[in-house]
Every structure is written in structure tokens, then in C-alpha cells.
Amino acid sequence: MCNGCVKKEYPDRGNTCLENGSYLMNYLGCANCNQRDFVLISNKATEDEDGEEIVTYDHVCKNCDHVVARHEYTFSVVDEYQEYTMLCMLCGKAEDSISVLPDDPRQSAPLF
């Protein structure tokens, strides 16, 4: 992972969790070859561990195969919520939780 390739390390992305792709707004360019071109995804792996799906891959420079960042995305269902997390030097850090019920109990107004 290379902090010379990104504008900001692990920017806060709120609840935007990317399972694939790259956050190019945070990409300065390759610190190895000094080119600002596309970032490719390589070494993508998906594993299912105790009901948690974990997707990992490398962001690499299109021109010289320099590893810009390592991306990790997780998905799981906890109680009645789908939980998402993302951690990547390029794409940032984020987490989200969505109810699997039609009406999210956290969003309902108190009755009294």
C-alpha cells in the first residue's frame, strides 16, 4: 500500500461501502511511475467465514502494476440488520446497517 498515491489516507466515506470499484477522486497518481491513469483490480478474493462475506482485492496501477491500496469489504446479517463495512487506503473507511424488515424499527417515531 502506498500513501504517495492517494490524496488522503482512509478518507471517511460515511455509509458508502464499495464491494468493487475504485474511488478515483482520492487518487493522485502512481508514485512509482508518475502516471495518472486507470487503477485496475487484481487478486480479488471472496470468502465466506461464519456467515460473513469478505471481499478483498488490490488496487494496482495500470501502467506498472504498483499496488496502490488493499481493499476490504465485509457483509453480514446481524439480528435483523444487514451490516456492511469497507476499509481501504484509496476508497476510505465506511460502515452501514440496513434493516431487513420493511420498516426499520430505528426509524419509527416513539408512540408516547
From TrEMBL:
<dbReference type="InterPro" id="IPR038543">
    <property type="entry name" value="Churchill_sf"/>
</dbReference>
<keyword id="KW-0479">Metal-binding</keyword>
<keyword id="KW-0805">Transcription regulation</keyword>
<keyword id="KW-0804">Transcription</keyword>
<comment type="similarity">
    <text>Belongs to the Churchill family.</text>
</comment>
<dbReference type="GO" id="GO:0045893">
    <property type="term" value="P:positive regulation of DNA-templated transcription"/>
</dbReference>
<dbReference type="GO" id="GO:0008270">
    <property type="term" value="F:zinc ion binding"/>
</dbReference>
<dbReference type="InterPro" id="IPR009508">
    <property type="entry name" value="Transcrpt_activator_Churchill"/>
</dbReference>
<dbReference type="Pfam" id="PF06573">
    <property type="entry name" value="Churchill"/>
</dbReference>
<keyword id="KW-0862">Zinc</keyword>
<keyword id="KW-0217">Developmental protein</keyword>
<protein>
    <recommendedName>
        <fullName>Protein Churchill</fullName>
    </recommendedName>
</protein>
<dbReference type="GO" id="GO:0008543">
    <property type="term" value="P:fibroblast growth factor receptor signaling pathway"/>
</dbReference>
<keyword id="KW-0010">Activator</keyword>
